[in-house]
Every structure is written in structure tokens, then in C-alpha cells.
Amino acid sequence: MAGPHPSWWTRLLLAALLSVSFPGDMANRCKKAQVKSCTECIRVDKDCAYCTDEMFKERRCNTQAELLAAGCRQESMVVMQSSFEITEETQIDTTLRRSQVSPQGLRVRLRPGEERHFELQVFEPLESPMDLYILMDFSNSMSDDLDNLKKMGQDLAQVLRQLTSDYTIGFGKFVDKVSVPQTDMRPEKLREPWPHSDPPFSFKNVISLTEDVEEFRNKLKGERISGNLDAPEGGFDAILQTAVCTRDIGWRPDSTHLLVFSTESAFHYEADGANVLAGIMRRNDEECHLDTTGTYTQYRTQDYPSVPTLVRLLGQHNIIPIFAVTNYSYSYYEKLSSYFPVSSLGVLQEDSSNIVDLLQDAFNRIRSNLDIRALESPRGVRTEVTSRMFQKTNTGSFLIRRGEVGTYQVQLRAIEDLDGTHVCQLPEADQKGNIHLKPSFSNGLMMDVDIVCDVCSCELQKEERSSRCSFNGDFMCGHCVCNEGWSGKTCNCSTGSLSDLAPCQREGEDKLCSGQGECQCGHCVCYGEGRYEGQFCEYDNFQCPRASGFLCNDRGRCSMGQCVCEPGWTGLSCDCPLSNATCIDSNGGICNGRGYCECGRCHCNQQSLYTDTICEINYSAIRLGLCEDVRSCVQCQAWGTGEKKGHMCKECSFKVKMVDELKKAEEVVEYCSFRDEDDDCTYSYTVEGDGAPGPNSTVLVQRRKDCPPGTFWWLIPLLIFLLLFLALLLLLCWKYCACCKACLALLPCCNRGHMVGFKEDHYMLRANLMASDHLDTPMLRSGNLKGRDMVRWKITNNVQRPGFASHAAGINPTELAPYGLSLRLARLCTENLLKPGTRECDQLRQEVEENLNEVYRHITGAQKLQQTKFRQQPNAGKKQDHTIVDTVLMAPRSAKQALLKLTEKHVEQGAFHELKVAPGYYTLTADQDARGMVEFQEGVELVDVRVPLFIRPEDDDEKQLLVEAIDVPVGTATLGRRLVNITIIKEQGRGIVSFEQPEYLVSRGERVARIPIIRRILDNGKSQVSYCTQDNTAQGNRDYIPTEGELLFQPGETWKELQVKLLELQEMDSLLRGCQTRRFYIQLSNPKFGARLGQPQSATVIIGDQDELDGNLMGQTLSSPLLPRGDLDAPQNPNAKAAGSRKIHFNWLPPPGKPTGYRVKYWIQGDSESEAHLLDSKVPSVELTNLYPYCDYEMKVCAYGAQGEGPYSSLVSCRTHPEVPSEPGRLAFNVVSSTVTQLSWAEPAETNGEITAYEVCYGLVNEDSRPIGPMKKVLVDSPKKRTLLIENLRESQPYRYTVKARNGAGWGPEREAIINLATQPKRPMSIPIIPDIPIVDAHGGEDYESFLMYSDDVLRSPTGSQRPSISDDTEHLVNGRMDFAFPGSANSLHRMAVSNTAYGTHLSPHLPRRLLSTSSTLSRDYHSLTRPEHSHSATLPRDYSTLTSLTSQSSRLAAGVPNTPTRLVFSALGPTSLKVSWQEPQCERALQGYSVEYQLLNGGELHQLNIPNPSQTSVVLEDLLPNHSYVFRVRAQSQEGWGPEREGVITIESQVHPQSPLCPLPGSAFTLSTPSAPGPLVFTALSPDSLQLSWERPRRPDGDILGYLVTCEMAHGAEPATTFLVDGDSPESRLTVPGLSENVPYKFKVQAKTTQGFGPEREGIITIESQDGGSFSQLGSHLGLFQHPMPGEYSITTTHSSTTEPVLLDGLTLGSQHLEAHGSLTRHVTQEFVSRTLTTSGTLSTHVDQQFFQT
Fold this sequence. Notes:
Low-confidence stretches: 1-26, 274-279, 1109-1126, 1322-1335, 1339-1451, 1667-1751
Oligomer: single chain
Helix content: 10-25%
Distance between the termini: 58 Å
Number of strands: 109
Largest sheet: 10 strands, mixed
């Protein structure tokens, strides 16, 4: 095909091949890339070539095939050539008893993006030479193990003989570094740390590998034990020296090397030496340092090696470790062994008596495992090894059969870019190198690999200032490269000169170059880099015809305003294929002979409802509708009746034939019978022929009709008259005869009555789960719902307690008692009314209190109202959006009946003075009972009765309340279920909360009264109490600022400080109130979360000047009877209480006599009394200040007088309260790589309490150390773990790290450090092994729970991975992750408001690997029964009938077929790499694997990954295109088949190079986003048959928005779809959809119409539930929850199905939060506001914004 001018048919053949190989422009990256040189072109893709032919006119950068087809000569094309050469290959000799590989060496040159495959043969003999080296811990605790090993030397040799006849055996011993603090450095201990022991040492090679077993035994017998101090040993030093000291140890080159490591202790690892010895040790140099005696000499100067170092060195030297450890240290070495590709782990008995059996088992396991890994691979090359012969294990090794030659498939791939940088721009070390492909037992294959990054030779041979370029440019690679200021093909046009403009102006236009270019040298130079074309730039290549929204149907290119179609396509928009393949019918013909093929579609000669797209008759459809179709024509032709009688009968396309008898049904196409509406007779006919009604059809009609016999029509008027007469008689009886009226009322047809009653008859509540002191008890109305009914009710407390009535009778009737009063106001509730302190709330509160006080002032002894609040009452019928006021009235106990009558009177009148109230509702609550009324409006079936529960601290462990419906004062309803029993079980509290003492003395000068509140923990957990202040002689807002609120004790907290601000004493107060001591009270109440109130529950705070307080105390003292003179005694009852973190109040009772003063001694507990501080006091109390926080002090006091000092009192100890800790100690960084670091820190110098947790924050900073973006937080809640491994950091970027500590008093200050890992020495790998070290991913989320996971949960890294896989379940942020809550969790949208919904959060560092969340929802909001604390599910007890738990598994799936994966999680690792994770679906059978498919959203090559390991739930994808949307599909497989797939669409957005849009800028930010569909769909129920749909404007619309297209159809396709066009481009659009049906799921789709076409769709499925709570069986196929509505309401149930893009919980502020729950979204529409709440079952780790939406 080479030649100067290829023939036309050659070009056509090549173009045809291209149309098959590259379906659309997406496959040709060469043509799309914006390149300016030959070198840039050939680096775009491995298939790109560059044409240097000077005469070539087309695009020079393209594929070789397209360049040849366009006329470029073969010799003028520049391509990069790859090569593959085997340099050394010796065939495997199976007779040799050693490990072998073939080939042994090769040289490979790969183009970026190219792959090479070859086979590697590995042979492991049945018997091979073996070297066994035993490395034993010689600390004192291993003495019995050494004795047993000495006895078993012969047995060990016998085991080796069974495996091989050629073996050697050696022995080494280790203890630890001979330095402080590992070893006792006292001279006597250095000589003999234990009796009969050797001096301490680090490592010593005792017996080099030898074949002489007797020598081994004899030398071993002379060994003695040694010793050290700390528990971990220095075994890592010994392992490294054993590996690298090949000559000293005696390893043979062709033998199997086994290292037995025996110990009963943990290990020291890298940075232990540096941390302990203040950083004076340098990193281990990985060299051999044994002296002539075999002793390790550099233990003082070099640190311990790291785990990655040991893994690498043992692999390089073919050494396989066998860990023989005791149960004590088994967990440490279990983690450690998992990082070695081939290793063994066994449990050693305490005396090592089973070591021989353990080694024999280990030998057998090791011999069957082979690991092949690529060592020293450059970053730009990926190596993968697979095998069709042998199975691969989870650790990456192969299960082999020894004695056979194994064949392995090796794939070498040169990546195109790394972290956004093209591989050719990386350092040379990342482009080429010698890769050592090494099996476990042999030296392996050496590969010389190089990535081809050559510069085009034509660029090196350019003609500078060439004459062919008018001396204004260089001629290079077949074209001119003009100098700056010159342009044109020959650089003959100066861009700065003005030339003739006439040739650039088209006739009839006033703009040069159509306004789309510049005129240079009489020629138009068009803008847009190829967008505009033509002599005058008059053609826009973005404005060609489109098909299905794609330019030129994506089957051609736009040129000169027209589509230039690819071969095989034609049409204005390239939408017509030239092939007739789509018109071929099942018989191989064209359109079944009933039409012709045009533009890939069949055009049938005769169109019918029963012909398909290839003109084939669908006989099954005919049988479904043929009779009905021809019915009207048969009627009009045969009988002159029916719909088409008259002129319309001529429109029929066939003629009927009348016959006497018809053929049987099985002999004709269709046999039909219908009733004629005109004469009520039945006629019959048959259809023959091809079945389609037309000229060829034969319709035979039977002449005789079948008519019914004659009827008695005259009886109908008579019957109607008799019925009317009977009804008139009954009406007269009802009107005038009471007896008849009573009898007729018993008849069902005449019964106008209906019943009301409670829904349930018993509720059982648990006090520690209750969040409020009331219960909404539903009451139902059945029968006729017309008219209003009002029901009075009452509740009685402690109905079962014996003697309760007599106790109540003994109460003083004049004593004041609080009465709770609730009324429904005649005004709508607003959001401001629910917020205390707002102006609207304060104004209404004043109005309510003034009017109610005016009414109740007539009650003798009644006080003014207080504690007035406003709320809403859900499930209150048509008035549930009205405001309800709750207030408290203090009145005598004897006034209860008067209050009740007065309240009922004004409620009936609808007004309290000038305050309008809604009649039919009130609640009046006394101390042990309550009465009230509820109203059923017309059409209302259910209302809630809000009954108080009388929660008291002194309640019995199980108390009973009785709710009773008394009567129906208004309405005709009768009472049904009258009684409801409520049982409240009081369980053992989690904590007892109280004040420390009943009275506190506070000086006014302190400005703030600090009152401690303590908790005694019974069961660790949360506790909460409410507090409020109350006036006494001190008045609120005059002496102090009144306060109320709640105190929450977190798990482990035992102390809280309540602060009350004190006010300065004004001069007027001094004059009016004199020197009176002011007092006020603080009350504790309403314990929650299982808390109980202890004693004292209230405290008195005394305010005064210090001298006033002292005077009062002295007055109290002096007022006591005076004792006779004598020697002073010791002060009595010394008492000390902590008053803060640095202050203790110490008081006592004065001794008998008249002391003139007191002397106090106090000191830190544990110190000598000689170091005590002395304090003198004139009063029997003193305040010790300037103390240490959280410190124990001892103190005593003596009195002194004229007689001298008396004796001291008894000793008293007291601990001060904790204070926030100081900043942590220094931050240490153990740099593993440029993106991974291990951060360690020291405990704060001043803990000031018990440290409970640490918080680590880190984030990017700029050159000025200012933060870039948000800081990421990690909570380490185990204070002993002061180290953290952080992965996936941005390379070569400085980070700011902060660490702070927390104790019982709160968080302390931060310790800060800024470090760039690229400037630090790197470690070779990033495999953590420190037990229980937290590992975090810098690309994870921002919540504690989102990404914190301990190494117990770290999975094995995939082969070739440089970091461990972490089974995390989160993500969504810039440079981070996006978590899609997909259709697997359904959401319900309800019109009923929920007044207060508890949000459960759960923060834990230990995340499960899979969180399988089952959801339970409540048909009502019994928030008093939910538990508002950290829990996975806050629901009612199981025995409640209102609890509905529905599974989210689809009922249509066959048994054993896996469900849809629960969700997709996308994590951006770079601008072109992505991690896709999913959650394991539910399945009755074991899963066998997954399938992951992905492709560009607008078409292109489909990539498929098969994952046979069901435990792998994530993949990392490389080489994605930046700023391109990809669609991902994941599905699971079991033995029964594939399950449904989960789909998601994602885009990695990043900045790209201006000249190459597929090349991201190095170091630029990247983020995840979804395509530009309209915003989330929000549904609002307007009535049972209509709803309002609203959505937000697309975030990134393609073009200007002209409007929206909304499609509504039944989800099951029962009726055709309805479309709506919504014009305009507003931020939020709305559409009201009428005419819907109840209990029918509808599917809505919304897509934006722009100037570029229609964008992607946003989809949602909605059901308006019926009022009678109809069945939901038809929705069984939808994944999700359905919340059954109670009678009298209607709601919207939302379920999701897969859409063009993933469903996001838009509006939730998911910084990187994780929503793992099914939810219900409740929305209540009123005239003034929209109240939305979210109820979750599961865990919700997010901050909910003020407003959120649901798709």
C-alpha cells in the first residue's frame, strides 16, 4: 500500500476499516488532541502518527491508517516504534534439583499506553536443597524454650531429611539493643542480667549454616540465656542482619532459604529507637555489620528496621520467614505475617515443646505456595502476573504443584500519565529501569524496560529562517513554524500590518470575516481553533444538524456548515445508515416483502397497528384487539347501527359478507361476539386472511342475532313509585314517632350514628428511652365522617398504687400547685413562633398572658401565668397548622374544678377575653391527673390526644396511667374503645446527677457563679438533665442573669460546671435593700437517657461581699452557746470541696472556746508534710487558690488563741477539678513515602486530668503557610495510641498538621507543625504494621466516622499495590470522594409535620467492613418513644402495632440471585484516576464475584472488569479522560446468575493544558461532579389527585436554557405518557400536575431544553397513597420503604429507580459525610412556611442544613 499516490479504492477500503475499528470520533484521540508539534502528536496515544509530507493538506496528527487514506506517503510518517527482545533464555531442565525460570533476561521498549504480553515458565523441583536458620529470642523468659530446643536437635534434623537429602541448619540468637531503656546498664547487670546468664547483646550468629547436625547440637548445648528490661525485643535487627549477611550466615545460592523466628514477645520497629532516645539514632543502612564473632555491632547508632524494609530484603534474598510465637504475641505476628507474600505462622507452646511439629506443618504449607513479584519497577511501568494453571490466593501467591513446569502470563504496560503528568515528562528514573521479576525460591527474570519518549527526528533537522518560510520562520516536519509576529502557510503575512480589507468582507455584510475572525494580509484567519471555516469564516462547525442531541449524530464531522459523514452513513445529520441490516426480517428478506428500506428503516406499504418495524404482522397483538377494531364497521355495514352508522361507514377498509352459519373458532383468525346497544341483541362474526383489517381480509357475519325474551318494562315505574312511597312513610315515622325513631336507628341503612375511640388499649414505655414527658395517643372515628364530634378525656396517674387516694386526700387544699394549660389559638403557626426570643414570639406571649390573666384572676389565689411556649400539634385534623400555646398557672389545689369549668366555658365561646381560640381543644393538667378535649372536624378520621405522663423521680419502678374517653358533648358519635392503659417501666439509671452540696457562697466581685454538677456513673453512657434558676431574695436581671437549659454528660464524664452571670449591685439597691444577703435557687429536672436525679436536686446560691459572708458565718458561730474557757480543742467536721480546677473550699466547725484565728496546712498528696503551705484565717472557712488542676491535696486546720495553738483536725483530702490539657508534646514524622507519613506525638506536659482522646487535623497550605481549603479531622479516641498513619497526601505539597488533646474538661490548645514530605527521606513502602495504629486516607471525608479505621480492619493490598486497601464506606468532597445514595433506600414525602425529630449520630473509630442497614419507620411520629441518642436505629419496641418494617429487597428477584449493590462510592485519586467502591448486596446464596462496566457517557469503548473475589468491593481505574463524564455499572453474581446492576455517572473535573485538553495541568485541583441534569425533584401533595413538582436550574447547562420538558407516566406503563413544556429560565421552576390517581406509582422525568438540545434527565417515582391505607403490593418491585398513612391523611411515597445520573441527596450539607440509611422526608405545607424533617434509621453522620430537598 506504500507509494506516492495510493489508489482510490485503497483509500476507500481503509476508510471502511476505520469505520469498524473506530466507532465515532471518541475512539480517535490523535485527531482530537490539540498539538503543535510532531513530538506532542506521537505522545498523545500509542496509535498516533505524524505526516511530514510538505504537500499534505489534511490534519497531520492522526492514526497511520487515516493518514494513509488521506494521501500521506508511508515514508513521510513518523511513528514511535516499540520493541521486545529476549536477551537470555535457557530451557528448564527438570532433572536439576533447583528452582529455575525461563526466560532469564529480556529487553522491552514500550510506547506510552502500550502493553506487551509474554509467558514465564517457573519450575520448582519435588526436592530441592534447603537452608534452615533458627533465630531465637534469648531473653530470660525463653529459658525453658532453649532447654527443649537443645533436646530436639536430632528430631529437627529428622524432619529435614524427610523433605530433602541436601540441607543445612544454623542458629542465631537475639535480645535487644544494649542501651537505655531497653537494657539495664548497671555494670553488674551488664555482666550477668540473670543468674547463670550471658551478658546482654543485640544479635549474634551462633552457628552458621552447616550440614553437621552433631556440631549444631554440641554448640547449642553450650548456649545460655540473657536478658533485657522492656517487653518488646529487638528481633527486627536480627532478621535484617540474617538476611543481608549472606556470607556470614552461609546461605547457598540455589537452595530454599527458611528463617524460623521464635519468640514470645512483641517487637520494636522503626522509630522506636529514635523516639526513645530523643532522635539520636539514624535510619538503618541495610548493610551487614557482624564482627568476627558474629555479633551485631551497630546497635547503638542505627535504628530498628521497618516492616517494609524486612519484606523487601527477605524477598530479595529468597528468604521465607516462619514465625513460631506464643499465644501472648500471636496477634502481633498475625498482622506481621500477612505482609510477607509467602510466610507461615504457628502457635508455640510456652516451653517450645511443639516446635518440631510446628516446623513440619510450616514446611508443607510453604512448599505449595509461590509468589512472583516485580521488584525495583519504575513508576511508569505496571506489571501483572496471572496463571491459567494455578489458583491465586488472597495474598497474591499461587498454589503450585512441585515437580511441574508452571506457565504464567506476564503483562507489561507503560502508563500514559501519572497523577496528571505525562509519563514522558517524568524523571528518567520513572521511565526506565531494570525490573526484577522474582519468584519466591529463585533469582527470577531480569527485564530491561524503557518507555519510548523520543523526539521526532524532523524536529532536530529543522531549517532555521528557511526561504520556504519567507525567512520569517523555520521549516520543520513538512510545514513552516512562523516566528512571532508572522503567520500564514509560508509566514508571509505580518500580523501587525494593516492590508487590504476588501477581500475579507463578504458581499452584503458589514463585518470583516463575518465577525468570527481577523483579516490578515487579505485573508481571514478564523477564531476558535477550527470552529469557524470558510473564506469569510462564515461557517460554524458547531451548528450542523443534530440527531438525538449529537452533532452529526456522532457519525461524522461538521465542515463548511454541513455534515461530512463517516463511511457507511448519509443524511443531513448522518443519521441514515447505508446498510440495510436493520431492515432484514427473520426470514432473511427485506421488510417481509411488505415495504421498502430507506434510511435504515422499513416503510411498510400498508401501515397497521399490528405490523412492527420490519413490516412483520404481530399476530399476538391482533388477537388482543382485532375484534374491537372491526366491530363498528361490522355493525354499520350489517345492521346500520353502531358508532359509524351513516356516512362514516364508507371509511371502512373492508366489506362484510352475511352467512347463515360461521366457521368454528379454531378454523379462523378470530371469532368475535358483541351486544348491539340499539336492540340489546348479540351478533357474531369471524375474521379470516392475514389478520390485518384491509381489502385482503374476509369478515363473515352471521345473519341471525341472539335476542333476549320480552321484558316487563312497565314494572320499573311501579317499583320506583313504591320505593318512594316507602321512604316517605319511614321519614314520617322518624319525624313524629320517637319509638319508631329508636327502632329504625338500629337498621344499618338508617343508622346516622358513628363511633369514636382510642386506637390501642395499652402502651408500654421505657423511661430511659423517653425523650419527652407526654404521649400522643391516636383516637379514631369510624362510620359516617360528616359533622363535628368533640370528645372529652381524662388521665389519672398511679392508678394501681395502694393508698394513693388517701395520700392525695391529706394534701393541704390551699397549697399552690402548678396547672398546665394548653389551648389552640385561632391563628396559624409560623417558624418564628417556635423560636423563643424572636419578636413575633414575644409579642404573642405577652398578648396570651395578658388575656388569660384577665380571665383567671377571678379564681381565688391564682397567680400570673409563666413558662408560656408555642408549638404545633400533628395529626390534629384540619387545624394541625394552628398554633397551640402551653403555659403554667399557679393556683390553689382546691381550685381545680373551678379552673376546669372556667376553661371549658371560654373554649366553648371561642375566646379568652380578647384572645381568640379554636373551640373543641384544651388540656388542663394537675399534679396527678389531667382533663382535656379534642375535636374531629368533618371528614377527619384520626386525631392525636396529647396526654401527660407525670414523670417524677420518685416514681415506682413500674407505674400505671389510665386514659379514659369520658363523653361526646358535641356531635352524634358514640364511644367505642374508652380506656387506654399506659405502663411506664423505670429501669436502673445510667447515672445519678446532683449538686455537690446544697448551698454555695459566691462573692459578688467574682462576676460569675460557678456551680459544679456531678454525675455518679452506674452504666457508662450519656446522661442529660435540665436546669433553671429561680428567684428568692435575689432577683433575676437585677442581681443575676436568669438561665435555663440542658447539661449533657458524654460517656465517661463525671463533672460539669454551670455558670450564672452575676450583676453589679446598684446604688439604689443598696439603699432599698440594705445589706441583705441575696439568694437564688438552681433546680435540676427532666433527666434523660436513663439518668436519675440524686440529692441534692436543688442548690441555693448566696451572693454577697466577702466581709458580709464572713460576718454571717461568724454570726452563726457566735450565736451558738459559749463554752467555758480552757485549752482550745481541734476544729470539728473539716470538709473540703473542689470549687474549680484551681480552687478548693475548706471549712470546719469552730472548736469550744474563743479562738482568735485558724491556721491551715495543705500540700500535694504524696509529698512530705514539710513541704506544706500555711494559710491564716479569721473565719472557719478558707479558699485555697492557685492549685494544680486534677490534683489530690491533703489539708488540716488548727485553732489558735491567747492560750496558743490547739491540736490539728483530722486529715482531709480533696481533688481539684480537671482543666483542659496543655498542648501535646513534639510532633514526629516518620516519612514512609512522598504521599504517606506516620505522625506521632507525645502526651501533653500538663494533662490536667485523664486524657480521653486526641484530634488530628491536617490540610494543605500555601507558601505563606495559609490554609488552602478545609482541614481534615481525625478523632483518635484511644489515648494510648499516639500515632497515626496518613496516606494519599498530595505529592510535593506542604501540609499543616495540628494535634490537640481532650480530657473531662474539654479540648486543649493545639500543637502545630508544617512539613513537606518531599523534603524528607523516604521509606520504601507504605505497609503499616504497628498494632492498632489508626490509618486515614487523605482523600477521605471530613467527619470522624467517615474515614477513621484501625489496622485490625485493614485488608490485604492487591498485587502491585503500594498502599493497603481500606474497607471504608464514605465520601464526597473536592480532591475526595462522592457517595451516592442510590435507589436502594427509598424516601417518603409526607404532608404531615413532625414537631421534633431526633437525629441519631454515631461516631466510632472502628467501622465495620460492611454496614447492612435495615430500616424501620413509624406510621406516626411517636417521638416520645424514640431514643434521641447515638444509636443505629431509634424505633419503638417490637410489640407495637404501629411499627412497620419493610425490606428494601425487590420481590421480583429469583431466589438466590443477588440484589443490587447498595450504593456506589467514587473517590478521585487524581485528575485521571478514580476509585470505585460499592457495598455488598444482600443475597441468599454465596456471592461469586462482581462485574464492573464503564464507558464515556456519550458513547465509546465499553470497558469491563470481572472481579472473581467476592470480598473485593472496590477497583481503581486509571487513564480516564479529564472533564469527561463516565457511566459506571456494577452488578453481583451468585450461583443462580447475575443480579440487577447499580449505575452511576461521574466526572473528574480539573484544569487542563490550553493546547491539549486531555492533559491535566500538573498539581492542579480536581473534583468530582455529576452531569448537568436539573436539580433535585421536590414533590408537594396538594390533594389526593394532584401534586406540585419543583426543581432547580442545572448547575452547568449546555447552552442557554429555553425551558424544560416534563414527562409523566405510570411506572408500570399502563397508559401513554403525558408531556408538559415549561418555559423560562428561573432558578427554581414549578409545575402543578392534576388528574392523578391514588395508589398508583408515577414516573416523572425532567430535562432542560437548551440552545444545544435536550440535556440529561432527572427522574423520580412518586405514589399518592390513599386515605384508607390501601395495599402496597403493587409497589413490591420498588426498592425502598413505604410508610403506611393513617386514616384521614394522604401522603406521597417516593422511590428511586436508576436514572441517567446518580441520585444525590441534594441539599444535605455532605462535606464528605456518609448517609447510610433509609429515610422518610416529611413536608407540611402551610400558608406561611414549609417545615421539613428527616427521620433516619441507621447512622446519619452529617450536619443538616436549614433547608434540604429530596430527589
